[in-house]
Amino acid sequence: SNGFIANNNVDATYLNRNFYDWNGPFANQTNVAPSKIVKGMTMRGGTNSPSGLFWATDSLIRVSFNSQATSIYWTYDIISSQISIMSSSAVVEMDGIYFWMGVDRFYLYNGSVKVLPNDKNVNYLFDNLNYSQRQKVWATKVPRYNEIWFFYPRGTATECTDAIIYNVKDQLWYDAGQAIGAQRSCGYTTELFPTPIWCDWNYDPVFSPPHLMIGAPTGEPAAQANQLYLSGNQTPLFSPGDSLCFSTENSLNNTYLITSSEFIFNDNTAPDGVTLITCSTDLPNFLAIGQLVYYVTGGFNIWQHEYGVNEINLLGEIAVYSSITTSDISWLTGNPSQNSLQGINRRMHLRRVEPNFLQDGTMAMTILGRKFASGPYEESSGPYYFTKDTGKIDLRVEHRLVRLKFESNEINGNYQMGRNLITAEYGDERP
Predict the structure, then answer these.
(1) What is the dihedral sign for C-alpha 24, 27, 32, 34?
(2) Main-chain phi, psi angles of 427, to 5 degrees
(3) Would you call 215 helix, strand, or coil by DSSP?
(4) Neighbouring residues of 384: CB distance < 8 A, sequence distance ≥ 6
(5) 257, 280 in Cβ contact below 8 A?
(6) Nearest 5°: phi and psi at 38?
(7) pLDDT at position 395
(8) Please, are residues 188 and 139 in contact by the beta-carbon 8 Å criterion?
(9) The whole model's pTM is what?
(10) pLDDT digit string (tens) for 366-397?
């Protein structure tokens, strides 16, 4: 709080790297800003190495180590006192440049603070972000595609449901459109792995068939408050470190960690033997003989992103839906090859589309049409299915404003769009 930063000497012994000597010759402490410090990151310091950046809620501070000093070894300067930061996790470094989300715009630091321009979807973000959950906003990067992702809770959501993305190489902005892959609460990109590792906030458990809770067999002690008996040898399934629950409804609040499971041979039961399961906490007091018990796998998934083109989960592999929709095509605003005003207020009659894709699997094309630029009604024709060997799609569709929507939704489906060709002619008079 109050911009307080304290530097201290650190034990150089590998096995004993503890902070100590807070008041020694290598330490100093100061209040460098009027507001709370929320984030610190290392940076290249040159001759003043090591160096770092600290983000306060309204300031950016640089700290440098001066090895020639005799009393004050750490020096500070406020780079900017006119910045903001959305959350403590809203900063990411890419190729030596630091990017972060403020409360109403984006910033970068490459030696000086600059505003990161966004004239594409900045209002889409800030007009719909749930500021009451702003601390859950977090940033990460996908170096292979030169992307920086900012995840945020949209609307009334209390977890991240969307992401806004900046392409550093192409200097372009786009967004995830609330896709399933944007429902991520945290993650990490490291050079140790070729792909990002992100965590899902959706609870997605898989339950075993039900097992019956039994009473203590003759000659065995009664189960304690954190124990239960199951018939037979269940140790291969109910193993230490795993979880169990007593209902498939609201299972997140009804799940218990198994600390041990012991098979006890006892010929007073059928089949012979019982399994005594011990959990880390006491089980609910409503339990009774005959209660259904489920073994739980899954839960909160950790995903390896940018790996393959399918979603791979505990139940198998499923397709990832993807679509792309063109902008409006019409005679009024231009033609398929140029965006110049033609002055011909006629409907466009589509006779043929020649798809041009590098694709795997079957794709679908739907024709979307409207009468006016703004209107409540949009008609659709299709879908028309095509593969990589499809040369043309013949059709007879007519609209004043036309858009083409291409979709892929099958296992191993993938595509890159090239230059599609349209055979069109003048249609009827305007509506």
Answers:
(1) negative
(2) -105, -150
(3) coil
(4) 353, 364, 365, 366, 367, 393, 395
(5) yes
(6) -120, -15
(7) 92
(8) no
(9) 0.83
(10) 999 998 888 778 899 989 999 999 999 999 99
